[in-house]
Automatic annotation (TrEMBL):
Domain named PAS: residues: 11-69
Domain GGDEF residues, every copy: 177-314
Coiled coil: none
All residue ranges annotated as the PAC domain in the record: 86-138
Name of the protein this chain belongs to: diguanylate cyclase
Pfam families referenced in this protein's UniProt entry, alphabetically: GGDEF (PF00990), PAS_3 (PF08447)
Top-level taxon in the UniProt lineage: Bacteria
Catalyzed reactions: 2 GTP = 3',3'-c-di-GMP + 2 diphosphate
C-alpha cells in the first residue's frame, strides 16, 4: 500500500508517527483509480478490518450500513466531483458484524490544472456522541410528553387540550364534519375537599379521570383536565345527539361508581354536571366560540340542579 507523502520539512517516519498516533484515522484515495493509497492502522482497532483489506472505494461502500449507503455515496461523490470539501456521518460495519458511527472529514486535492487528483481525510469514531445525542433526544421527547400531561390524573392537560382542539377544528373545517365538545364539572367539589381532605380529593380526581378515559374509547377521542375539578372531552366527527349520549354515559358512570359525597346537595354520592356542544365550523369561525357555548350549557346544567347534561344552543 502506498504511503501518504510527508509534508515539506518533516521526515517521512516522523510524519507517519504523527498520523498514526492520533485517534483519528487518516486515509487517502487516488481519484483516477478509486483505490486507497493509504489508510491508518488505527482502522483495525476500531472496525477489525486490516489496512490491507481496504483496497478500493468499493470496500468502503460495502462496509457501510445499507440504510446509509446510497445517500452517503451519492453525496460524497457529488461533492468530490465539484471539488468541495465535505463531511459525512454514517454507520460503518465492523468485522464482528456490529456497526460503529463514523464521521468522515474529506479534503479534495487538485492537480496543477485544477482536476481532482485525490481525496484525503480522517475518520472519527463518533459512536459515543451519537449515543449521547440519542439519550438527549429521548429525554426531550419524554419532557415534551410530560409537558402535555396532567401530573395528577395522567390525562391531557390544558396545554394539550388547546393543541388538540385547534388541530381537530382545522380538520373539521376541511372535512365539513361535526366536532363536539363535552365540558364536565364535579358537583360541589369544594365541599368534597373540605369534608374529606385534599388527599382524598386528589384520589377523587384521579378516579374520575380514569372513568372518563374509559368512555373516550375511539382513537381520536381526547380527554383533558380543563382546570381544577373540570374535565373536557373533544369528540371529532361526532354530532350533537351522539355527544349527548356519550355525556349521559359519563354522568351515569360516575354516579354509579357510588363515591360517597355527604356534603353534596345533588345526591349522597359524587355526581357531575355536563355541558355539550357540537358544530361544523366554517372557515371564519374559531374554537373559542364552541368553548363559550359549551361553558354556558354547563352553567345551565348547574343552575337547573346539577347532576345532569345540558345542550348548548345550536349556532
Amino acid at each position: 500500500m502506498i504511503d501518504i507523502e510527508a509534508k515539506p520539512g518533516l521526515d517521512g517516519d516522523v510524519y507517519r508517527t504523527l498520523l498514526e498516533s492520533t485517534r483519528a484515522i487518516p486515509w487517502k484515495i487516488d481519484w483516477n483509480t478509486m483505490t486507497f493509497a493509504y489508510i491508518g492502522p488505527q482502522i483495525e482497532a476500531l472496525l477489525g478490518w486490516t489496512p490491507e483489506s481496504w483496497a478500493s472505494v468499493q470496500d468502503w461502500i460495502d462496509r457501510m450500513h445499507p440504510e446509509d449507503r446510497a445517500w452517503v455515496v451519492d453525496f460524497c461523490v457529488a461533492q468530490s466531483k465539484d471539488g468541495i470539501d465535505h463531511e459525512a456521518d454514517y454507520r460503518a460495519l465492523c468485522k464482528n458484524g456490529e456497526y460503529v458511527w463514523i464521521r468522515d472529514v474529506v479534503h479534495v486535492v487538485r492537480d496543477a490544472d485544477g482536476a481532482v487528483e485525490a481525496l484525503v481525510g480522517f475518520m472519527f469514531d463518533i459512536s459515543e456522541r451519537k449515543r449521547t445525542e440519542e439519550r438527549l433526544l429521548n429525554l426531550q421527547r419524554e419532557l415534551e410528553r410530560l409537558s402535555f400531561k396532567d401530573g395528577l390524573t395522567g390525562v391531557g392537560n390544558r396545554r394539550c387540550f388547546d393543541k388538540v382542539l385547534r388541530n381537530e377544528w382545522n380538520c373539521a373545517q376541511r372535512s365539513r364534519q361535526p366536532l363536539s365538545l363535552v365540558l364536565l364539572d364535579i358537583d360541589y367539589f369544594k365541599q368534597y375537599n373540605d369534608h374529606y381532605g385534599h388527599i382524598q380529593g386528589d384520589n377523587c380526581l384521579k378516579r374520575v379521570g380514569a372513568l372518563l378515559d374509559s368512555v373516550a374509547s375511539r382513537p381520536r377521542d381526547f380527554l383533558a383536565r380543563y382546570g381544577g375539578e373540570e374535565f373536557v372531552l373533544v369528540l371529532p366527527e361526532t354530532d350533537a345527539q351522539s355527544a349527548c349520549r356519550l355525556a349521559e354515559r359519563c354522568r351515569e358512570l360516575i354516579e354509579q361508581s357510588r363515591m360517597p359525597h355527604e356534603k353534596s346537595k345533588a345526591a349522597p354520592v359524587l355526581t357531575v354536571s355536563l355541558g355539550v356542544g357540537a358544530v361544523v365550523p366554517d372557515m371564519a369561525s374559531e374554537p373559542l366560540s364552541l368553548i363559550d357555548a359549551v361553558d354556558r350549557a354547563l352553567y345551565q346544567a348547574k343552575t337547573q340542579g346539577r347532576n345532569r347534561v345540558a345542550m348548548a344552543e345550536p349556532s
